[in-house]
Automatic annotation (TrEMBL):
Top-level lineage group: Eukaryota
GO molecular function: Atg8-family ligase activity
Database matches in PANTHER family: AUTOPHAGY PROTEIN 5
UniProt subunit comment: Forms a conjugate with ATG12. Part of the minor complex composed of 4 sets of ATG12-ATG5 and ATG16L1 (400 kDa); this complex interacts with ATG3 leading to disruption of ATG7 interaction and promotion of ATG8-like proteins lipidation. Forms an 800-kDa complex composed of ATG12-ATG5 and ATG16L2. The ATG12-ATG5 conjugate interacts with RAB33A; this interaction is bridged by ATG16L1 and promotes ATG12-ATG5-ATG16L1 complex recruitment to phagophores. Interacts with TECPR1; the interaction is direct and does not take place when ATG16L1 is associated with the ATG5-ATG12 conjugate.
GO cellular component terms listed in the entry, alphabetical order: Atg12-Atg5-Atg16 complex; autophagosome; mitochondria-associated endoplasmic reticulum membrane contact site; phagophore; phagophore assembly site membrane
InterPro entries linked to this entry: Atg5 (IPR007239), ATG5_HBR (IPR048940), Atg5_HR (IPR042526), ATG5_UblA (IPR048939), Atg5_UblA_dom_sf (IPR042527), ATG5_UblB (IPR048318)
Pfam families membership: ATG5_HBR, ATG5_UblA, ATG5_UblB
UniProt-recorded name of the protein: Autophagy protein 5
Recorded topology in the membrane: Peripheral membrane protein
Keywords in alphabetical order: Autophagy, Cytoplasm, Isopeptide bond, Membrane, Signal, Ubl conjugation
Annotated signal peptide: 1-17
Gene name of this polypeptide: ATG5
Recorded family membership: Belongs to the ATG5 family.
Amino acid sequence: MHYPIGLLFDLLASSSALPWNITVHFKSFPEKDLLHCPSKDAIEAHFMSCVKEADALKHKSQVINEMQKKDHKQLWMGLQNDRFDQFWAINRKLMEYPAEENGFRFIPFRIYQTTTERPFMQKLFRPVAADGQLHTLGDLLKEVCPSAIAPEDGEKKNQVMIHGIEPMLETPLQWLSEHLSYPDNFLHISIIPQPTD
């Protein structure tokens, strides 16, 4: 319940045929394998916690702290009820930045791999280099997860997936964060073994 469904698809089933078959069990909940969700309030609290963490990275929490409780509720209700306009009216503010800054303070991202025991990797990473150049997805991966990138003369062993697509490594990280972040405002990046077929 704490990973977005698109991320789970990228990690676990991106090479399978669509539609993705999901089995829902109503008895014998697998407590040892999954976190049990005690209530809708717990899901809302987790979501808002993630949004606040992302805003702390992007804007030093200034945007989320300037919002009123009704704005937080509108954000959640828009997501919960699948009302994009209601959600985006508030989330748009979380995606803006002053023009003179050329981007967010840090990019809220998490990198997931199926081949490691770590649930995910996350660290501070600026969208703009000290010389003013925009950092790319490739720059992020070289610093945080260099094994994900094939050597120039080597065979590609991994696939980098976001929302079911494999973006080019030259894509600016700021652009990815603005356009491919999940509703929690994080860029969830999956690194999976290269399909053999």
